[in-house]
Each structure stands twice: as structure tokens, then as C-alpha cells.
Amino acid sequence: MILAFLLEGRSEKEMLKGLLPRLLPPDVQVEYAVFEGKQDLKRQMKRHLSGWRTPNTVFIVMCDQDSSDCLKLKAELVERCPQAKQDHVIVRIICRELESWYFGDLAAVENALNVPNLIQYQKKRKYRIPDRIHSPASELEKITGGAYHKISGSREIGSRLSPNSNTSGSFQVFIDSIQEMIKGWDPKIEEQDTEDTEGSPSSVDKRPHCP
User: Fold this and answer.
1) 175: which of 14, 94, 96, 152 is 20 to 30 A away, CA to CA?
2) For residues 73-96, b (16+ Cβ closer than 10 Å) or e, as one string?
3) Pfam families recorded for this chain (predicted)?
4) Are both 183 and 90 inside the same structural domain?
């Protein structure tokens, strides 16, 4: 099985490289396609998905919500997924930014960046619900005294994030998606999907919830 991630930026890749080895069985191969921001992802994802020919692949499209309406953004990305020839496409929106996930596990951030007493912020009302923090990237840079940088910080934090105790709801939805996918994967689906024609129903994740 191959998990192919379509990501809006490099920081997501660095985080996943640290997180995924603790979630996936050794026979699952991971591929990354990193785009130059959300608009570039939107522009290229359909061509990228349509051109993929490797069997037994599941795609996960990830991007930040930022200031967008979460459900509308997810619906837009789902609409850009081709309707045939793909095993499975899951769209996951990060509420609001990747750093929301880091606020969900400040113990990991404290350990990764060697900044003491960060975990105390998790008890403050402003940071108690990570997915509701306004501009979490800026906030994380502020409370770490500038020690957090998006790419290098994501690289260090990703390998320390707890899959089970993170208080970000969108992080837990992402983790659940990965675990459900691995548990329910059936290679025979690939044989059926290769027989689909354009316009046939696909297995794109169209569940209305956000993320």
C-alpha cells in the first residue's frame, strides 16, 4: 500500500516525516507531493491525481484552513478530485493552521525546541482549544520567544507529537482517518477501481464534516 500526500507546503511534510513512522506498519510506503501554497495545490491537484498510475495508492490532500470557510474549502478540494482511476482520496483541512496541532501538544513543542514551561500555556483560556486560536503560527513564535521556525520546528516537533493525547480536534480526525484507512484497506479495491470509467462514482471522501 502507498500513502501519497498532497501538501500545500514543506512544513507539513517535515511534520509528517516525524509522525507517520509511529502510526504506519512497515509495509506502507509514503510519498509526498509538496506544492507552493494553497493556490498551487488547487491548481495542480487534479492533474497530479489523474496522472498517478501506481496501483494500491491512497491519496490524502492536506491544507490549512487559514481564514477560509472550512466546509466550503473542503468541498472545493473534493470537487477537484477526478472521479475515476483513483483508489481513495481523503481531504483533510487543518483548523486553522498546522501550528494548531502543535498547540494541542505543547509538551512535544517544549521538548522539541528546548523551551521550558511551554506546557503551562495549554491551561490558559486563549490556548485551551487549539483549533480556535487566531493566527496560531504567530502565537507559537511569540510564546517560544522566536525559537519556532516553520520548517525546522516542524521537523523537530513531528517526531515528538503524541498521536493519542493531542487536544486539537482536527489532529485527532486526521489520526483517526489514517488508522481507519490502514485497518480497512483491501487491495482488491484496486482491481475494481481500474475498471471505472470517467464519470463513475469514486471513493473520494465526501463526508460533510470539517476537517
Assistant:
1) 152
2) bbeebbebbbeebbbbbbbbbbbb
3) DUF4276 (PF14103)
4) yes
| Alpha-carbon span 83 to 23, nearest angstrom | 29
User: What was the pLDDT predicted at 187?
Assistant: 54
Number of domains in the chain: 2
Range of the domain at 146: 99-158
pLDDT of residue 7: 98
Residue 163 phi, psi dihedral angles, 5° rounding? -70, -20
Residue 20 pLDDT > 90: yes
Check whether residue 110 and residue 79 sit in a common domain: no
184: confidence class by pLDDT, cuts 50, 70, 90: confident
Give the chain's mean pLDDT. Answer: 88
Indicate the SS3 state at residue 204. coil
Residues counted in the chain: 211
